[in-house]
Design brief:
By secondary structure, this protein is of the alpha+beta class. It has 13 helices and 52 strands. A hairpin with a 5-residue loop joins strand 39 and strand 40. Bound molecules: alpha-D-glucopyranose. One of its GO terms (molecular function) is carbohydrate binding.
């Protein structure tokens, strides 16, 4: 049976938990045991990271995975001791506890607090299907964990519905769902089988690494139990001991890879439409942005730029001179990004198709024929991206786009999405020839999208080694953040989807995919002025900010609905441009530590359980809290402010958290709160594009109130890889307020990049100054609209500003 979105068969069979185990080997960092015919290995990869592998039916340990980036871990001091139940493998920070009869594995921190313990009754094991004709590694594997009282679950990558996933059933199987996904839909385009658990402020993470179909039952069937299962293969999982969400994410992104530094222009506002039909339309759109003074850095060409949807070609009637068009756009400050789908049109006169076929680069039917299905171009063949050679070939084909001036590549339909039947994906028995190791599609399904994005990123790096690749993907697997940013596919112009974008992006961020965004304005269906304005208020705070919409829907460029909406969109997009230095610093923090850019409140305040349910608000970094309006006609909403002092960005009003407040939010003034003592670096007021000049003045906006805080300012050339050789400038900006005194410290500049010469304007709000000293010397200041402004010079050493309030 061909598998469609709805009709996927469930697997039967009898679950067989592992029984008693015997240790068979002990190495520096690991224990190996044998339970019946299953080999189990527990390895300490880092003081707070364990890997567990179970390999049924005598199969040897094997951990290679598209999810994993870091394979060479520094040795960890590990000790093994005998316990009453069995053995413990201890690092300086945590231990894995194994009871041997039957084999059950759990974890404990240094204080002895246990977490992520196997369910005593069910543990891990295999579902015996007892059917002839299946290879043994197609039998499902399962892991059962005990859910502790009060334990709550988050993450799971791209999901519908709310932030918290406790009590839910999660399916991981990449599909292109039918239009208008609601909370009733489960799996979407990407699969990241990663859980973040929180209990009383203590976090741990679990990655269940298997690119086949995976399902999690998160205490839905039994409130005391969690079940994680895959449709076959080995059972491999990683436990990140935390104890904070920040630590979990740091380790998780060390294992699965960090978000690469994007080019600065990628943070700018972006505009798309399926499709801008021809050169003239593209020019008209670009002109409108400039004439209307709405900043924009990137314009997209959707599928209609191609000749009959043949990838790596141009429709020469609609786009007779792409090189000229793209260079004109470039002069106006626009980059161009083109879409590329995996399906290659079956066409005897199309060299790309022929070349792929002659080299055996396509997926095959079980009978060895080229596997074909229908996508936009009609009948297509599908590259086997599991092969290095195929990925190289795909990457090389990008040359034809780059030669015309394309700046970035948008990978779509890479679940892969197939049209026969509608909303289907590749049948599990399609064969990936690989590089000499053929594998059925079902074994690699969820990784297909990541592998395509990888082909593109690696190709761009080979073709333009001096530039940071810009790659977008719709489908992918854990670790996709190494290759591409993720946009969340086809949302709708619905208020419900504006709301859902918040939990969705927060869970993506908690699952390592920090560079993400939803289509601003919504893709399917007709937008309207108010929805677009509110969507843009939210959208400009996304790591990836792109307005995109489907064929046949109303136009939804920022000016499409006239006033007052156009002005709101302009104001919000300009706010994003002012925030670019802050956003860019957050990207660097993410690149260095894995911390999400758009993050849930619980990431910053894990001790505060009220934040666990606050999924219609989020933090942009650690300094800015946003509580978007997501219903029509509404001018007020409830906002929860966690501990500390907060300042309403538009009125300057101060609030003491924890508090539940009612925010007034007319159009154009979304509820945004600055966290006291956390500096927010801002760029100049007006800018058409994200391109910056080193002379641009830099403003450090700080809201002072009793307490302390710090953020990081990071700058570099905005593209290229000089930062890897130290060509960057990073400094910590801390602020402490006690009584009447506020001290702002601009830490010593790290790195050799020279910003400036420029003015650095300290913009302190919330206090009135009577006396200001810079490095011990009296310094003048001015007061404007209640803001205290101190002008500083850009210099590499530490600068200390002391403000004595009246
Ligand atoms: C898919 C994409 C969408 C794109 C369309 C045409 O639906 O998700 O963004 O516009 O295909 O290429």
């Amino acid at each position: 049976m061909t598998e469609t979105y709805e009709n996927r068969p469930r697997t039967g069979g009898v679950y067989e938990p592992l029984g008693a185990a015997e240790p068979v080997l002990q190495e520096a960092d690991r224990l190996r045991l044998r339970a019946g015919s299953t080999t189990v290995e527990v390895t300490a990869l880092a003081p707070d990271l364990f890997r567990v592998g179970a390999f049924p039916d005598g199969r040897p340990p094997e951990y290679a995975s598209e999810a994993v980036a870091e394979e060479d871990w520094a040795p960890v001091p590990v000790s093994v001791r005998e316990t009453e139940e069995g053995l413990a493998l201890a690092t300086p920070e945590a231990e894995a506890r194994l009871s041997l009869s039957p084999l059950r594995i759990g974890f404990a921190d240094r204080s002895g607090r246990t977490f992520c313990a196997d369910d005593a009754e069910l543990g891990m094991g295999v579902v015996r299907r007892g059917e002839a004709g299946f290879p043994p590694d197609s039998e499902p594997v399962m892991l059962h964990k005990r859910r502790e009282e009060g334990e709550r679950f988050f993450g799971c990558g791209e999901r519908t519905s709310g932030l918290e996933k406790t009590g839910s059933h999660q399916v991981f199987w990449n599909v292109d769902p039918p239009a208008g996904h609601t909370a009733a839909f489960n799996n979407l385009y990407t699969s990241i089988p990663f859980l973040l658990s929180l209990r009383g402020g203590r976090a741990y993470g679990l990655l269940f690494d298997n690119p086949r179909r995976v399902e999690f039952d998160l205490a839905r069937e039994d409130p005391r139990r969690v079940r994680l299962g895959a449709e076959g293969g080995d059972l491999v999982y990683y436990v990140f001991c935390g104890p904070t969400p920040r630590r979990v994410l740091e380790r998780y992104t060390q294992l699965t890879g960090r978000t690469p530094m994007p080019p600065l222009w990628a943070l700018g506002n972006q505009q798309s439409r399926w499709s801008y039909a021809d050169e003239e339309e593209v020019r008209r759109i670009a002109r409108a942005f400039r004439e209307r003074d709405i900043p924009c850095d990137v314009i997209y060409l959707d599928i209609d730029y191609m000749d009959g949807y043949r990838v790596f070609t141009w429709d020469r009637e609609r786009f007779p001179e792409p090189e000229r068009l793209l260079s004109e756009l470039r002069k106006e400050g626009f980059r161009t990004v083109t879409i590329v789908d995996p399906g290659v049109k079956v066409d005897e006169n199309y060299p790309v198709y022929i070349e792929g076929r002659e080299n055996g680069f396509y997926c095959l039917t079980p009978g060895g024929e080229e596997y074909r299905n229908v996508v936009w171009p009609g009948l297509c063949a599908f590259p086997d991206f599991t092969s290095d050679r195929v990925r190289r070939w795909w990457g090389e084909n990008l040359r034809s786009l780059l030669d015309e001036g394309v700046s970035g590549v948008w990978c779509d339909m890479n679940e892969p999405s197939l049209f026969v039947p509608r909303h289907s994906t590749m049948p599990p028995d399609v064969v990936h020839p690989g590089d000499g190791r053929p594998r059925p599609h079902g074994e690699v399904h969820n990784a297909y999208g990541s592998l395509m994005a990888r082909a593109v990123r690696e190709g761009l790096l080979r073709l333009r080694p001096g530039e940071r690749p810009f790659v977008i993907t719709r489908a992918g697997y854990a670790g996709l953040q190494r290759h591409a940013l993720q946009w969340t596919g086809d949302n709708s112009s619905w208020w419900e989807h504006l709301w859902m974008a918040m939990p969705q992006l927060q869970n993506l961020g908690l699952s390592g995919v920090a560079f993400c965004g939803v289509d601003v304005g919504g893709f399917f269906g007709d937008c309207d002025g108010e929805l677009l304005a509110r969507f843009t208020e939210f959208g400009v705070l996304q790591p990836f900010c792109r307005n995109h919409s489907a064929k046949g829907t109303r136009e939804q460029e920022p000016w499409a609905f006239g006033e007052p909406y156009e002005s709101v969109c302009r104001r919000m997009i300009k706010l994003r441009y002012r925030l670019l230095p802050y956003l860019y610093s957050l990207f660097e923090e993410c690149h260095r530590t894995g911390s999400p850019i758009l993050r849930p409140l619980l990431f910053e305040f894990p001790e505060d359980e009220t934040t666990y349910a606050t999924d219609d608000e989020f933090m942009l970094g650690s300094a800015l809290l946003a509580a978007p309006i997501t219903r029509p006609g509404i001018r007020h909403r409830h906002v929860y402010l966690p501990e500390g002092s907060w300042f309403h960005l538009w009125s300057g009003e101060r609030f003491e958290g924890p508090a539940h407040i009612l925010a007034h939010a007319p159009l154009g003034e979304p509820p945004l709160y600055a966290r006291a003592n956390h500096a927010i670096p801002l760029g100049p007021e007006l800018s058409h594009t994200g391109e910056r000049s080193p002379e641009d003045p830099l403003t450090l906006m700080i809201h002072a109130a009793g307490g302390s805080g710090s953020t990081t300012l990071y700058e570099d050339e905005g593209d290229g890889f000089g930062y890897r050789e130290g060509v960057y400038a990073r400094r910590e900006i801390s602020c402490e307020t006690t009584g009447r005194r506020t001290t702002v410290r601009l830490g010593e500049r790290e790195g050799s990049y020279e910003p400036g010469p420029r003015e650095v304007l300290l913009d302190v709000r919330g206090i009135r100054g009577a006396r200001t000293r810079v490095d011990g010397e009296e310094r003048g200041f001015r007061v404007e609209d209640g803001r205290l402004l101190v002008s500083l010079e850009e210099r590499p050493g530490e600068t200390v500003v002391e403000i004595e309030a009246t």
